[in-house]
Every structure is written in C-alpha cells, then in structure tokens.
Amino acid sequence: MSFGQAKIESTTLHVMGIAVAAISLGMFIAALVEWGSTNRDTAALLISGTLALVAGGLLWWVTVPGTVRARDVFSAVGWTWLVVTLVGAVPYLLGGTFDVPGIDRSGQFVNAIFESASGYSATGSTSLTDFEHPGRGMMMHRQITQWYGGMGMVVIAVAVLPFLGVGGMDLMSAEAPGPSGDRLTPRVSETAKRLWFTYVLFTVGVSVTLIAIPGPSVYDAIAHGLTTIATGGFSPHADSIGTFDSGAVELAIIVGMVLGGTNFALHWRAVTGDRLAYWRDPEFRTYLKLLIGASVLVIGLLWLDAGLGITEATRAGVFNVVAIATSTGYGSAQGAGSSGDFALWVPAAQLVLLFLMVVGSSSGSTAGGLKVMRLQILLAHSIRSV
C-alpha cells in the first residue's frame, strides 16, 4: 500500500492512533522528571514513549475516519481504551516497577496492566505495595495516566478531528465524563478543546496553590494537582494526602476535588464571563447541598459519637466526605489509629460515606458514581408515581 494513495478507512484505528500518540507525551514528560537518575526508569519511559509515538503516528497516517455509525462509536471508545491501557503498562514492565520479592513474571505483567487500567479509567485502585521502589519519573507516569483518564482519551482524539462531524459528538458523548457530552459550540472539535482547556487551567491552578503552601515539594504539588482535578486519587505516597499532615494542603485539595466533581461545561461558562452559571444550574446547587449536608452530619457523628474534638472532626469529616463523594479516594490518615481513617469511624458515619460513594458528583464532571442529576430524576419520578 502506498502512503500517498490508498488509506484504510477506519474511524476506530484513526482515533486509536491519535490517542496512543497523545499518551507518548506523558511518558516523555515523566522521563524528564527521572532524568539523571541511576535507575532504569528513564530508559524505560523514553523507549515506551518512542514506541507509542511511532505506533500511534503510523496508525494515524495510514488510516482515515469513515462514516461514524453507532457500532463505530462503541468500537472506537472500547478498543482505544483497551490499547491505551496496554501501551501504558509498558513503562512499568520495562522499568521493573513490580519486580519486587514475592511477585513472579506473570504477576508483574498482571500488576502492570491493572495499574495502567486503574490510571486511564481514573479508578484509583492500586496494586503497588512498595511506593519507594519506583523512581519519581515512573510515579509521575502513574499520575499522568490518571490525568489523561480523567477527561477521556477519546476526547483528545476528537479535539483534533474536526471532520468527524455529528459522529464526533457521538464519540465524545460516549467518552466524556457524565451522562452526555455538553456541546459548548456548534463544532465538536471546539467543544473538546474547550473542555480540555478548562481541565488544564484548573490542574495548573491546584498545582500552583499546592506549591505556594509550605510542605509539598514542586514534584508533590504537580503530582497531586494532576490527580485531584481528575478525581482519581493516585498519590506518590503510601499515606496519600496524610503524608503532609497539613490542614492547608487538605483545604486546597478539597477545593480541587469539588471543582473536579462539577460539570466542566459550567466551568467553561464561568471562566468565559458567565459568573452566575453555577448558581443557575439546579444540579450544581443540589451537589453543594449534598456535600454540605453530608459534611455537617458526619462532623456531628464524629464529634458526638466518636468523641473527637470539633476541629479534628471537621477536618477529617469534610475531607473524607468530599473525597468519597467525588470518587477521588484520597486518604488523610496519618498512620494507624488516625481520625482520618474512616475504617475506624462509627457505623453511621460510614453509612453516609457509602451513600455518597454510590451517588457521586455532577454529570459532565470527572467524578464517578450514579451522578446527582440521575438522583434528581429518580426522586422526581418516584414522587410523581406516589
């Protein structure tokens, strides 16, 4: 086949190529973080990034998007996510991230796939047991996978495919966070770009705020900025946010998680001058009421039933309520027996967290769960049926 003549007509392969090439940038950035160290992570990240760039570039070059049908939407999203997960696991395998005592080769392979899938799906579960074994670059790669996954890999692809037309909106709706992708402009590619611009803007904002607070290093600030807005919860530290034991850090993270759990279409409208965008949205108002109400309830339970001081109960209660409601999953416990460990809370407080875990946050956000909008619809339908 001549590159200059016939090309393969496949929307799935074309979108996949762009997405695979896009994640190579994250690997190169992670390699720069590790640059100069004596471990093998730098080489692993550079090799993986190069392979991803070449493979993704070739897929993009030899294919053209065709007419997008319903089955193409599912195919593009499903296969792209699967292939990106496999490619994202390569640095872990080449760098020996899971090459620790007690784990054989097959176990290392499974763990690498698991960690990559958890990152790109912004789930936050981890198979990592020794947080000191990988270098900073590999841990940054881990954080970046979750940042990519927060907004969705296919949204990246759609951003550079203005000729997808209506089918592009179907693709973005299938991958963008929330029940549907809000269309901010008539052009699908412009909508995707605006969502990503807002995503980057808030990521930078959280990172800069954390840099300004005593405690976190620049590396820690950026690492947590990436996974806070993604509401993914990965941390380079085994104790998560509890590592810093700082109320100021926790407050900054709380604000970031609330932003990540808010509809990004509202963020764009607010950033571009519509200051009342949030308050006009009934889902956002319910979302805030849910967070505030649950926080007050948990604080009261920790204060009255668990015997914690009001300051300690407030700090532990609000942080964990927001972390669970936004599906971020950060921890604030500082070792065994800490008040931030909700496994030690009274059952009533744990039940509140369980409810929040199911409901989640706003539609169109990076958070998981049922979504507040669906809860509103469910309640409205139930009331009408009574």
How would you name the oligomeric state of the polypeptide chains in this document? single chain
The domain count comes to 2
Mean pLDDT: 88
Percentage beta strand:
under 5%
Strands in their spatial order, largest beta sheet:
1-2
Low-pLDDT stretches are 160-168
Globular, elongated, flat, extended or rod-shaped: what is the shape?
globular
Quick one: how many beta strands? Answer: 2
Q: What is the radius of gyration computed over CA atoms, rounded to a whole number of angstroms?
A: 21 Å
Task: Report how far apart the termini are.
Answer: 65 Å
Task: Characterize the largest beta sheet: strand count, sense, and whether it forms a barrel.
Answer: 2 strands, parallel
Question: Given the helix and strand composition, which structural class is it?
Answer: mainly alpha
Helix/strand order: EHHEHHHHHHHHHHHHHH
**Helicity, as a percent range:** 55-70%
Question: Mind explaining what this structure looks like?
Answer:
The chain has 386 residues and is mainly α. It folds into two domains: 8-175, no CATH class; 277-385, no CATH class. Helices cover 65% and strands 1% of the residues. It has 16 helices and two strands. It has helices spanning 11-34, 41-61, 70-95, 105-120, 136-151, 153-159, 166-175, 188-212, 218-229, 247-260, 264-271, 277-280, 282-304, 310-325, 347-359, 372-385, and strands at 8-9, 63-64. A two-stranded parallel sheet has the order 1-2. Helix 9 packs parallel to helix 10 (247-260), helix 13 (282-304) runs antiparallel to helix 15 and helix 14 runs parallel beside helix 15 (347-359).
